[in-house]
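User: structure tokens for this one?
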Amino acid sequence: MSPGERVLGFNAQQQILATAVFSDGSLRDVTAAAGYAGNAGHVAEVNRGGTVRTGEAPGEAAITVHYAGQVAAVRVRVPRPDGPDPYPTLPVNNPIDELVWAKLKVMGLVPSDLCDDATFLRRASLDVLGTLPTPDEVRAFLADPDSGKRRRVIDAILQRPEYADYWALQWSDILLVNRDKLGDRGAFELNRWLRAQFAHNRPYDQWVRELLTASGTSAKNGPVNFYPRRPDAGRRDEGGQSGVPRHPPGVRPVPPPPVREMGPGRLLRPGRLLQRPAAQAAAG
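Assistant:
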């Protein structure tokens, strides 16, 4: 699938090329047969033929490409035309800063100035713990003259039990933990397991892998309850997936295109549609 990502200006267009790779190693241009959908029509729209057109609003859009059960995505970025030139040098305090600054530079955006101490403490507490700091915490933080106090308060917040409670609750909503479907015990076990992942700072890739591959009894093993207890839970859909959520929260699922014959002995290779590196795609 080409290009994998593209930076476009206002009122520009880009044709997507979708290529399927089959089990015998052969390739086929399936651009006309694939299905397309976007998630930000005010930034970029895509038609049935795979042509992306931008409007006059800056932002980022993801265009999904579907063919025979396989899905790939094209990222389209439309920067602000009035961005600073040259772009200012921004302070880097951690690896996350580097990624954020690089993205803002592409989009032509400059971050806001640093907030004051009271605003910082309020935002950190609400975002991470879901609660406001106490008056005593605010007074102590404002009175602290140490220049490293923000870093210290971040570390302290992440060690508080409310952090694990709050994010277990958030992920219980995302994973549709429902006592009506799972029963009181199943919902409790899954929520308790989620809380333990955050309390022990377990990497996301590790606990998500355990969530998807869990086995055993739902009354003892929390992640087993990720599979809803409903009539279609064991059935497989067109893409070979069992009856569990397949789309990230807030993303509307798009029906796959009709299944087409591939020819004798030819199957679409499992995995994504063929994607070329961004540099190669831009050159093409």
